Amino acid sequence: MQNLTSVLVTAYAKAPQGTSMYETYKHAGIVLEVDIQTHEVIDAEFTFITKLAQDYFKRMIVGFDFTSDIEMLIKRIESHYFAPSTGSVIVALKSAQKRYLEKINNVQDTK
Q: Using only C-alpha atoms, what is the Rg of the chain?
């Protein structure tokens, strides 16, 4: 079995009504692969309808240290992603970071 050095973190937020994201998924979902040594986001997927939006979001977030202040990343999203689902993306991202920090703190506490 392969030795894994990363974890997957997921989170969801309600998609805005009237958008294709809402009609297709009902929720905005985020899946992040995070390196457990550096806490850097190494891959990202989001429930965007278009491949362009998925690729663009990925470029915005890959390389971000998921233990650092999320407000930097939120400002980046707000200044580069103009869509009805911006709020949902931010809610899901905050939820994912909260989950990640809770899990890594629990792992460290058990060592």
A: 14
CA distance 28 to 11: 8
In a 3-state reduction of DSSP, which class is residue 57? helix
The three-class DSSP label of residue 99 is helix
For residue range 72-105, list pLDDT tens digits in order: 999 999 999 998 889 999 999 999 999 999 998 8
Q: Which segments within the chain are labelled E, that is strand?
A: 6-14, 27-35, 41-46
pTM over 0.85: yes
Task: Give dist(CA 30, CA 2) in Å, integer.
Answer: 25
Which of 23, 24, 27, 26 lies closest to 13 in space, CA to CA? 27
Q: Which two tokens stand for residue 96?
A: 């994912």
Structure token pair of residue 44: 């990202």
* Alpha-carbon gap, residue 38 to 49, rounded angstroms: 30
